[in-house]
User: What shape does this take?
Amino acid sequence: MFRSMRDAKAGARLSFTFDGRPLTGREGDTVTASLLANGVTACRETPVSGVPRAPYCLMGVCFDCLVVIDGIGNRQGCLVPLREGMRIETQHGRRQPEEVYG
Amino acid sequence: MKAVTAIDQLAESYDLVVVGAGPAGLSAAARAAELGVNVLLVDENPAPGGQIYRAVTMTPVTDRNVLGTDYWRGAEIVARFERSQASYAGSCTLWSIGPDAAVPEGGGFEIGLSLDGRARLIGARQLILATGAQERPFPIPGWTLPGVMTAGAAQIALKSAAIVPAGRTVIAGCGPLLYLLAGQLAAAGAEIVAVLDTTPRSNWLKAAAALPNFLRSPYLAKGLRLMAKARRSLRFVGGVTGLAAEGAGKLAAVRVERGGSITTIACDTLLLHQGVIPGVNLSNAAGCAHDFDTVQHCWVPRLDDWLTSSVPGIAVAGDGAGIGGAESAALRGEVAALSAAHRLGRFDARERDREAEPLRAKLVRALHGRRFLDLLYRPAPQFLAPRQDETIICRCEEVTAGQVRDTATRLGVTGPNQMKAFLRCGMGPCQGRLCGPTVVELIAEANGTTPAEVGYYRLRPPVKPVTLAELAALPQSEAAVKAVVR
Ligand SMILES: Cc1cc2nc3c(=O)[nH]c(=O)nc-3n(C[C@H](O)[C@@H](O)[C@H](O)COP(=O)(O)OP(=O)(O)OC[C@H]3O[C@@H](n4cnc5c(N)ncnc54)[C@H](O)[C@@H]3O)c2cc1C
Ligand code: FES
Assistant: This one.
């Protein structure tokens, strides 16, 4: 979906997983930017109809970037900096109690 | 600048808390600190800059031509702030503003902040909200498909992460920023296959009266340059009257209506932009009165000459006080800071007025010609109140334009708060940020009234999500414990 600019400053690489898949991202990027850069096209499913959604505004306004990070749901990926070893998962519908403690 | 990196490093209270580290907030906090005020600046983003100067201190974009000279000017604003004695908490979200019970005769505030998964309530004698603008909602059929995002989102991805849309990209909408965004993305190597301009042709007539002023404005040369460049190098399509995003589970094409004819453009990314409007959630939830600005066509907080809201002690500066652009945002931040410093007893009214005079003069210059842009780029009615019933207008609760129209006409619902009770629009996590303006527009149209008469959602804190775990872990005051424990 997104790709790196050619003459961008490279940063340190961080490892993380998305739905169990090992991926790498750049230090200094948000969770959402890292997912976009890795070609992830959708990161959540809506609570009402279950359709896939992708980040829309990237500035904390739309909440379409909601993901589960290290077991905690409803995190706005576009505001959370990526950290080494993060476990990021698609948020399915509403936040489930087991996801909170998972 | 004193960096605050953990929530327990915050003081119990500050003379002044500024929310938002864009040009307005950075200038307000720097000026106040220079006057000896004990000030804290918080921003939910990890680095200062706000929207226009986003990530200016840490952007991975090395080629300075890509983002243009205006962007790099932000470094000076950040540097001035960094030289000041103000405290700065990045990645710190403000989610509530309430009266401070510890200040018996009122006047103080208790604010809720979250940083790195931990929350705290602290005191603030004065508040300046500099939370900026958001892009105006632009609901079209299919705008919830993955692959459709705002043009501002692509700009944020570019500035902060140096990434650009990978495939065929279409930009659609109107407003002065549209050309800038298209130009920046093209310079960064994105494949922009078309720029679709939805500016209604009739707007030119309406804006003509404001043209003489615009011809003397600082926007003119810049705007013309941007427009000429975009038109020269990109495929530009004017007079677009209808848009729809198409695809199964993911964007595949955009359907374009121009007058009577329809064409389809295959694309991987569709970027929507319909100008920017003040983000009013925080000021609304803090109880500040708002009015509908008919020229900018949006809600703005009601402010006096010193940018003080209807709630004494709360000022609103920058684009959150009405769209004026980065230069005016910085100036308005300083004016608000002078006023807060005066209220905190730093200097008398005469001195405050004298300090404000040159700022006000510059402000008049910076805002010259704004009216022309506002009138010219006023969105077409069919994008403010979508015609197609199936268009989703509340992205969170998946409420459609047809449902809102039906509820307004058949059930006689006359206001957005009542609409919320019927349809749940505005009840989702975004708290009306993406549906509010459209719901108001649809109700006004259905009932033959105006947005001003319809009113807006009455919002409540928390204005940003805070987890129950964070709330439960808040240190409780004695009074709070007594209120629930018998
Ligand atoms: C997506 C977008 C892109 C734009 N790009 C440009 C551009 O390239 N050029 C241009 O001239 N104008 C641009 N603008 C217009 C913009 O509004 C500028 O005029 C300028 O950034 C306004 O400055 P400001 O200080 O008022 O607010 P902003 O720069 O928007 O800063 C507001 C800050 O408040 C923070 N904030 C908001 N709510 C909270 C909260 N509850 N807690 C903590 N922090 C919070 C935000 O994170 C943000 O950093 C853009 C607007 C948008 C919406
Ligand atoms: S993408 Fe809109 S809130 Fe994160």
User: Anything to note?
Assistant: The mean pLDDT of chain B is 94. The CA atoms of residues 81 and 285 of chain B lie 28 Å apart. The pocket of FE2/S2 (inorganic) cluster (ligand 2) is lined by residues A 32, 55-58, 60-65, 76, 78 (CB under 6 Å). The longest strand of chain B covers residues 118-129.
